[in-house]
Amino acid sequence: MLKEFHETFFALNCPYDEASTVLFGAPFDSTTSFRPGTRFASRVMRAESFGLETYSPYLDLDLADCPVFDSGDLELCFGNTALALADIEARTETILRDGKLPLMIGGEHLVTLGAVRAAVKQHPSLHVIHFDAHTDLREDYLGETLSHATVMRRVWECTGDGRLHQFGIRSGARAEFLWAQAHTNLHKFNFDGLAEAVAQIGQAPVYFSIDLDVLDPSVFPGTGTPEAGGVTFLELLEAIQLVSKRNIVGCDLNELAPIYDQSGSSTATALKVLRELLLSVTKTSGRM
Amino acid sequence: MLKEFHETFFALNCPYDEASTVLFGAPFDSTTSFRPGTRFASRVMRAESFGLETYSPYLDLDLADCPVFDSGDLELCFGNTALALADIEARTETILRDGKLPLMIGGEHLVTLGAVRAAVKQHPSLHVIHFDAHTDLREDYLGETLSHATVMRRVWECTGDGRLHQFGIRSGARAEFLWAQAHTNLHKFNFDGLAEAVAQIGQAPVYFSIDLDVLDPSVFPGTGTPEAGGVTFLELLEAIQLVSKRNIVGCDLNELAPIYDQSGSSTATALKVLRELLLSVTKTSGRM
Amino acid sequence: MLKEFHETFFALNCPYDEASTVLFGAPFDSTTSFRPGTRFASRVMRAESFGLETYSPYLDLDLADCPVFDSGDLELCFGNTALALADIEARTETILRDGKLPLMIGGEHLVTLGAVRAAVKQHPSLHVIHFDAHTDLREDYLGETLSHATVMRRVWECTGDGRLHQFGIRSGARAEFLWAQAHTNLHKFNFDGLAEAVAQIGQAPVYFSIDLDVLDPSVFPGTGTPEAGGVTFLELLEAIQLVSKRNIVGCDLNELAPIYDQSGSSTATALKVLRELLLSVTKTSGRM
Amino acid sequence: MLKEFHETFFALNCPYDEASTVLFGAPFDSTTSFRPGTRFASRVMRAESFGLETYSPYLDLDLADCPVFDSGDLELCFGNTALALADIEARTETILRDGKLPLMIGGEHLVTLGAVRAAVKQHPSLHVIHFDAHTDLREDYLGETLSHATVMRRVWECTGDGRLHQFGIRSGARAEFLWAQAHTNLHKFNFDGLAEAVAQIGQAPVYFSIDLDVLDPSVFPGTGTPEAGGVTFLELLEAIQLVSKRNIVGCDLNELAPIYDQSGSSTATALKVLRELLLSVTKTSGRM
Amino acid sequence: MLKEFHETFFALNCPYDEASTVLFGAPFDSTTSFRPGTRFASRVMRAESFGLETYSPYLDLDLADCPVFDSGDLELCFGNTALALADIEARTETILRDGKLPLMIGGEHLVTLGAVRAAVKQHPSLHVIHFDAHTDLREDYLGETLSHATVMRRVWECTGDGRLHQFGIRSGARAEFLWAQAHTNLHKFNFDGLAEAVAQIGQAPVYFSIDLDVLDPSVFPGTGTPEAGGVTFLELLEAIQLVSKRNIVGCDLNELAPIYDQSGSSTATALKVLRELLLSVTKTSGRM
Amino acid sequence: MLKEFHETFFALNCPYDEASTVLFGAPFDSTTSFRPGTRFASRVMRAESFGLETYSPYLDLDLADCPVFDSGDLELCFGNTALALADIEARTETILRDGKLPLMIGGEHLVTLGAVRAAVKQHPSLHVIHFDAHTDLREDYLGETLSHATVMRRVWECTGDGRLHQFGIRSGARAEFLWAQAHTNLHKFNFDGLAEAVAQIGQAPVYFSIDLDVLDPSVFPGTGTPEAGGVTFLELLEAIQLVSKRNIVGCDLNELAPIYDQSGSSTATALKVLRELLLSVTKTSGRM
């Protein structure tokens, strides 16, 4: 008898209760003000993931040894931001409650807010490490407070001063940069200062949010708002290594918009970042 | 001294107070559930409009003789549907109050609701003529009542039974087609029955909404949800001629998503529909 | 506990043993001599299928009432044609043996050979109805007998003279057209003669193979070898209706190459053809 | 010893002195005012021509029996219109002087002027049959008299009143349509009147110029200025048949801009038009 | 009453007489011999500029504080090079005569010649600093002396030996490199030697011409002739900083061809270079 | 009389018997398991090669001085791998037997096997230097031993242990990396160790195979399986210089798939690599 058809990230097939990391997609881009399209990221990444090796020659580790469960994509309501964020928060809470690590694939960066709200409930002393080209610190955008352009301001409302650590930032309004001086730990352009930040955080719980546009558009043009002057792929891998040694309780990868890179190269790069991230943050009980 | 730079549709330069028709763009697609991109329609159409002749060999009329004012694009808030609709309603009201005909360029089809709300306030006995591939008659979409998939249900709430006339419809849920039998004047696949509907409406005020996906995807692939089996360009021109003989008090053209047709042909076709529509509905005081 | 993630055509979820039709993808295009890319058809169609309504206003039928099982895509070996055909034959045999109707999504047209080989074993008196722009009747192609350009010659070897009925043919070598006069029932350009052919076949078992390039490139540019002068979408629907009244024992839909139509319109059209085909050939036990 | 590599249209290999028709490309688009790109037409058509059968099921004729020589592409100077036209005129003159039929692949439509200048020198009583979406009858364009937008006005200067027969025209300035009433034989929208025109021309020498944008953009989006409402592929074939029965002394095919149709379908259609044209106008000494 | 619609670069709205820098577009690419398309650069850049922040975290300066006027695009005659250059020269002269700094957006690189001709009239001792991948030093191109491939030779005719400083050059004919040794200050591959050149120029008037293809194609593929081995975005910013400390009397940014980079990333990068250039060269009367 | 039309790489026109290097294309990608398209590489490269200067400012050498013959593209049978490899082997043997250097343009990487088989027959002590992102060392792929994924394993069967030198490798199965430790000289990520390898090889005959995906996808996205983290263009040039000082008896350039980079930048980069390679490996008898 023919079995049902499953397509999962990297063809992973670990059952939910044996998994220590749980993937899910959050296809939502309703508040994107420039060029939408990140809603297609998780679907396209999953489909293309069969083209990537599961073994990392960087880490000498293999996803085949990694207990990861792909719980598929949420069905989110375009045009109703509050509802979409509530769905994301609920999924994240379920995963956290089951003692597993949630890894969300966005979507626009606003999806991070849903996940952070769930994480901070369980971990009130949460730090957030944020890689991005953009500040995302506006109080509101055309009057709306829930927006891709305000998400880190809303995250800061969850964590308070000094617990939001931003790296790679190279675009924003002057007022945002000024506001950041008082409230966040903002590092311009690259990962300078990351080692110090990570050391200072120690064993506090960390939510790790990667906006892939932190990468230079040369290697990652497939995003709504490409910003020249970003970090290289190898710099990002090294930074992920640094962060993943902390006590990660949740993470996400955002802002791939596959349609803007018809070479498929941005998707392939996002997948490789995902592989390295999964290999770095997933707890195993006996990796070589 | 160098003058300021103006780019308008077809390089039209009639002043506002001499105009009888007023164009505006409504770049909004936050509730689009499948493929977004209609937010770019008005901008791209305006830019490409210089490649189209202002003279119509079909009508033997010229836009140069047409008192049309281009009032530019609204700046709408992505992610806040109610706010966006209110802005559209306000712009439409202003134009109606000044005794002019509003012609809106969407955007997703939901933008029609803002304009109809303004029109029905001034014209309580309003009829709506609706060309579309889709029913757009759902009560809600994933719980949200303001959506591209529900817009004609909301319009019906403004007009009541028997005043919403739908043509070209070839896609929808079974329940929508059933509901339409009791409440709207729905015609499947093409413009059969249009002459009768138009005769019956007589001189009642009419809002005229054209979802360009009523066209066959062969001539109009540049839209979020292309539906094979649509009408031809010449059938659409003829239908516009029929409708425009009525008492039109407002109209719109929706659902061009330029990014999905990189040949530019869909944009060129949308512009030609716009030209013919402008020539047909604009009041002049002495055209040849 | 989170459940496993399933993506199926049109989100169909009928279990295998209750299904009367079984879908599968045959992603193979190794012998394509001009432009490859049909290997991506089933994957892209499945992903895009959620954008299409399950209800057909043409037939007033709904896929929700149709017992169809999606058994996913075969993993075929690029570069080893014989092996790939054997895998297709095996899958088809399993479905036929379980008393169900196989519906295969290609791939290049050669995949039909695998399915016909299975069908003719069970139904030695098999007829084949073939919609296509191309004859596909060469004896060999650069010395190779298993090729997209020879597939109908190989099919003829299974059925013998007078049982292969070809429609819409508008491209081929002169020698193929001459050969067809003696051996197949070839109709040029359109569906003229289809009603007669169908009447003549009567209740004999029929394998129904649709090469989507029978459609005009205006509505279906997304294929390796577009041939101007094809049939319209509505003509194809009508022809499918005619054929599906026969005793269909297997069918397929081939030659969508999504990459060549970046508007997505060809994929949407292929899906609508698939919906109408499924609604027409699937046996139900009590449809309205 | 390895031979030199030749790529010709349809792999034609008839020597020059045995040929009765001579092909050449005129890759020039310097005066295109909207979207350039026709310079790539001949190169792309030649490369793609190996994907098209040489046999026509419409005419039951084969290019393999047709004495056609491909003389390659001219190297024309972008930015120097007069020089480019002179090169085209010279090539056409050579071919005419050798008693052969020149068939030029443009390029923008202005290239026709070079060929007509050569033809009218040899055939002072020349008629021109012109298929096009556009009038091309301006006196000048931004002050320049040699332009794609003025080419038929310049051609008229070669032939005089009543010898320029225009078909399919659906775009132009009002003044051009008015001017045409006095000077050319202009037919709007389609081929109505072609049979009469052809009968009237009798055995006078005819230059036959096909701007491929006479086709509807649904089947031919790959052109700089697509104009909805054009003729179908089969209507064009039929019209070519009508014209080719006259005394054709030169012909051209223009305005394919491959980059605007990434499906390749426009190029394939242009090639099929070219095949049918070659089969219709080439003199053979004993075709079946 | 509704106001007229203005779309300007970065939504700048400084009046002409208060501006110290004046932008204009020069959409011209008639002499481009390989791949045209730079004619669309200024239009697309203006449209996309609303997606870029006006604040520079590199310079800690904001365009909102910069007195810049956007005077729109010239309407240039394709196919008549001399006329187009005269129009550019006239516009540049007007701006210079009014004591303002002209900043031109090309177009192909030939447009620089029009601007330099105006500048050298007012500043006979003019130096030209030229960033480019190409030498652009041919005497003629297929017999034509006004060409993108000859522009710097023509510029040299305006300035004389030793006043043309070229950087980043990595493509050209051997003869051009040899000629440059005697007449220009040519630096291969990168900006080595720029500091020395700038020091040597001192306070002499400088025209600053940036061909954006000096950037590596990885970050700037959207150009007609991409040349691997170019400079990085940050190297270019640094070099602009160096040059802008001189007495700049005119500048331009050339050779973006948006159509060749459908990710939009090249346009975004060009805009960021423009922002940094504007912030660096615009005179303000009291910047922080 | 008009001459036949020739299009060759860089318009090279050296006759075969005067040539020391012979180019040919091997358009084959039947076994590509992810994204096909390399079959178009040689055709597109040849067509685009006229946009590239023949002079190298890196080497101060010019292709005009290089005795290179372009023998065109093989016509290979898609779907019959063994036959295709035999054709490649035969062409390579002919060139080698005539004492010339074969330079093959793929195609997928499997084409290398045909050329190596010919080379090792003439040079039994052959070394192979292999630049690639991928190991290509599988024993079989889905049961097939002739595949792009197994090609270097098959090459190793020709050369034996210690004669296959791999550089830039950053993707493969763990088992392949382990196998390589015992059998090949594999260097991960970049060209570290190349100087040593080259020194060790000394004057032994070398076949040099460049899979262009060794380049970073930022500069070379146009390939089937882009792998982030690759080498830069300048690093590749330098490595080519190192290798070409050895006794090169054959070489190839593979895996450009032009369709995946619509900017044309990958093709331009491939051509520049080809130019530098030709200038480096071609024997001349008296270059300046």
Keywords:
homohexamer; alpha/beta; 8-stranded parallel sheet; 32% helix; globular
Secondary-structure map:
6 copies of one chain form a homohexamer.
Chain A: E1 21-26, H1 41-48, E2 55-56, E3 61-62, E4 68-73, H2 81-97, E5 101-106, H3 111-122, E6 127-131, H4 151-159, E7 164-169, H5 174-183, E8 185-188, H6 194-201, E9 205-211, H7 233-244, E10 247-254, H8 265-281
Parallel strand pairs in A: 1-4, 1-5, 5-10, 6-7, 6-9, 7-8, 9-10
Antiparallel strand pairs in A: 2-3
Compose a concise summary of this entry.
The structure is a homohexamer of 288-residue chains. Chain A has 288 residues and is α/β, with parallel strands linked by helices. Chain A is built from 8 helices and 10 strands.
Terminus-to-terminus distance of chain A: 38 Å
Order of helices and strands of chain A: EHEEEHEHEHEHEHEHEH
Biggest chain pair interface = C-F, 24 and 24 residues
Number of helices of chain A: 8
Largest sheet: number of strands, sense, barrel closure of chain A:
8 strands, parallel
Sheet with the most strands: spatial strand order of chain A: 4-1-5-10-9-6-7-8
Q: What is the typical, i.e. mean, pLDDT of chain A?
A: 94
What can you tell me about this protein's structure?
- In chain A, helix 1 packs across helix 8 (265-281), helix 2 (81-97) packs across helix 3 and helix 3 packs parallel to helix 4.
- The radius of gyration of chain A is 17 Å and the shape is globular.
- In chain A, 32% of the residues lie in helices and 18% in strands.
- The mean pLDDT of chain A is 94.
- Chain A is of the alpha/beta class and 288 residues long.
